[in-house]
UniProtKB/TrEMBL annotation:
Gene3D superfamilies: Intergrase catalytic core. This is Site-specific integrase. Keywords: DNA recombination. It comes from Sphingobacterium oryzagri. PANTHER family: PHAGE INTEGRASE-RELATED, PROPHAGE INTEGRASE INTD-RELATED. Residues 1-107 form the Tyr recombinase domain. The keyword Disulfide bond does not apply. InterPro entries: DNA_brk_join_enz, Integrase-like_cat_sf, Integrase_catalytic, Tyrosine_recombinase_XerCD.
Amino acid sequence: MVKVPLLPHALALIEKYQVHPKASNERRLFPVISNERMNGYLKEIADICGITKNLTFHLARHTFATTITLSNGVPIESVSSMLGHNSIRTTQIYAKVIEDKLSKDMFDLRDKMKPPSQL
């Protein structure tokens, strides 16, 4: 078990589902559905929104790990714990994806530090 302070959106979802019968019966925060069904729902959402990328639950976890946490400075140890990884090596796979962002960030920093005469 790990204690994680929750963001307001997460708290709102917990409140929304706290009276859901399936979640209550299974003593969970949310009703649990199969990965296959979840991916089906994500495909429907993508179709409605005109998204051509194949959305999956795995992609959502990957996006959370890279775009939402690591790219915003959350330490990899914290991300590893949030994802439930037993080894930080598993989480380091996600960290490789943000190397491109690191490169872009350094180029942006270089441009910001140029004297006005060089811009």
